[in-house]
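Quick one, T. Sequence first:
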Amino acid sequence: MPAKRIIPCLDVKEGRTVKGVHFTGLRDAGDPVELGARYAAQGADELVFLDITASIENRPAFARLVEETASVLNIPFTAGGGISSCRHVETLLRSGADKITVNTAAVLNPALISRLAAAFGSQCIVVAVDIRRGESGWEVWTHGGRCPSGRGAVDWAAEAADRGAGEILLTSMDHDGTTNGFAAGITRLIADAVPVPVIASGGAGRISHFIDVFQQGGAEAALAASVFHYGTIGIPELKERLAANGIPVRPVSEERRENEAD
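Structure tokens:
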């Protein structure tokens, strides 16, 4: 069984890492370059960088900050925010990103996924799916969680995978920032519906939440922000507990453990 991945997320606004609850009430969480270097040293498997206002402001993610962050990393790095063309993707890849994530533009123009996958390879394309539970079930939202799309979460994730997405980054807006646990139920439904890895996001607060989303939710990776930014959970400890519960993870090297202790 492939190792499960632990992925810290840097939500960036105006050059600073921020974190809120339900995508609102943002507060400063630190310098993204410093945080990226710290997480790589602690044993994170990958890192995600999201320019959270790029879609709203109708611009691509900050390439210079992506380049600065990539320069301190020795782990795979995914960048996103406002991507709507092959040119945007090429800019981010040239800046040091290994993968890109696309959300709003893909919902508005699903053919974009196919074009990006054909141009850069499915392994490079992560489709982010932000969802909220409504009267008719889980619905996809766009523009940083501000606009309902009318698309059902499972159907959209399946279409994105069919069009060439290499991974689905699933974020429950209802759970985001609450530290009450991931949305394991809908994560499982989507994991069963798509042939590509699902990255669970939104709600991590305790190590048991990671165990649940891997064992019950069927996620291949778990993404979190505040529990790492504010030191609630350490990555070495998290990986030890996951392994103790029979969940395969890449071990943290002794050198990284020493860095964590320092």
